[in-house]
Amino acid sequence: MYDDYQIMRRCIDRAVTLERHSGRFCRALRRSLPGLHRSIRLPQGDGPKHLTSFAIRYVQAVPDWLERLEILCGAAGLDLAPVRELICCAFAEPPERHPEHAGLGALLDEAYLAHRTLEEINDRLQPACGTPLLPMDPMVANLVVRELLGEEFAAELDAISVRVGRRFSGLQLSPDSLVALVLCKQRFIETPGVWPDFAGRLDIALRMPLATPQVDTSH
Known about the structure:
Blueprint: H1 2-22, H2 24-36, E1 40-41, H3 47-75, H4 81-92, H5 104-129, H6 139-149, H7 151-166, H8 175-186, H9 198-201, E2 205-206
Antiparallel strand pairs: 1-2
Helix pairs in contact: 1-3, 1-4, 2-3, 3-5, 3-8, 4-5, 5-6, 5-7
């Protein structure tokens, strides 16, 4: 179990180090920035650097969030190992679909799949647990990454995450499992900084279509 998380963290560290030395992902963003500006609202300054910082934080959160969910599920007698193995394999061997997707760009694909899968599992377990297991609200961050990946490819990853999430639908937990889960969750209640609003903290948001009412998604 823990070896898988170490593998993920090493893969992420390598990709981040590569990006800091090569700036490859940031350069690719700079070339595509005019198109991104139609849908993503960036803060003043160097937009590609802001988006690169956002992408790094988004990717780095995956092993911590996944490990937390696996611990909580384990307390309730739920097996998250197949999900962990799926995500770990994706991180260990990210497919480089395009030369510019090497390094951080390749891991962003896998991070989106991981975040969407965690979101699906979290939502589907809530009825059985009576509360979200992870205090996460990744909607804006996932939508920003969806724009970076492209609608068609992101939809493919969404379909995978939905299939995985369905395995956790309609579960019934015994009273003992619920008590064990609540006691385990109490260990994680006060952990500042672990559940960041990636987009909000960096003042990144989505531009709403002009034909629809404006909605503030910055929080």
